[in-house]
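Re: weekly structure request thread

Next one in the queue (188 aa):
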Amino acid sequence: MATTSDIRNGMCIELNGDIYQIVEFQHVKPGKGNAFVRTKLKSVTTGRVLDHTIPAGHKINDVRVERRKYQFLYKDDMGFHFMNTETYDQIALQETMIDRPDLLKEGEMVDILFHAAEEMPLAMEMPQNVVLEVTYTEPGVKGDTATNTLKPATVETGAEVRVPLFINTGDKIRVDTRTGAYLERVKE
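Done, posted below.
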């Protein structure tokens, strides 16, 4: 058990049956009344962000969460399968635990958050961006670089990404995993 004086950014706490990570906090001592801590919490399991106020000195349940590197192997009807590259242990996660499963390609390294006491996976975090090959898009025409017009393109994972007109089939592009947006063309 910890108290509000132990709160720091990145700390994970248990609240209302869910595990939250503290994004930011502020100790407040109003002129009248008791002090309190205003926090912004992000759910580790759902990604939902909420504001929460805790009275000063109040006890909170801190949770130890470990971040481990795993490699994505394959997807089947049991879920998404990952392997720890150090111990070769394999786990399967359901699609609901993954933010952007359509951008996940085989061999990709990801971080999986574990509840340390229960050895239970909580969530999977992808890298901020991934490099994917365009498998189909309408051909670009020479000189189509003057405008910011975008066209649909299908990448190797099957996801559809909006790309600039100069991108062709076979090009490698960098995609932001948080938004699914095109970032840049990757030179080989």
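The radius of gyration is 21 Å. The CA atoms of residues 5 and 87 lie 37 Å apart.
Next request, please.
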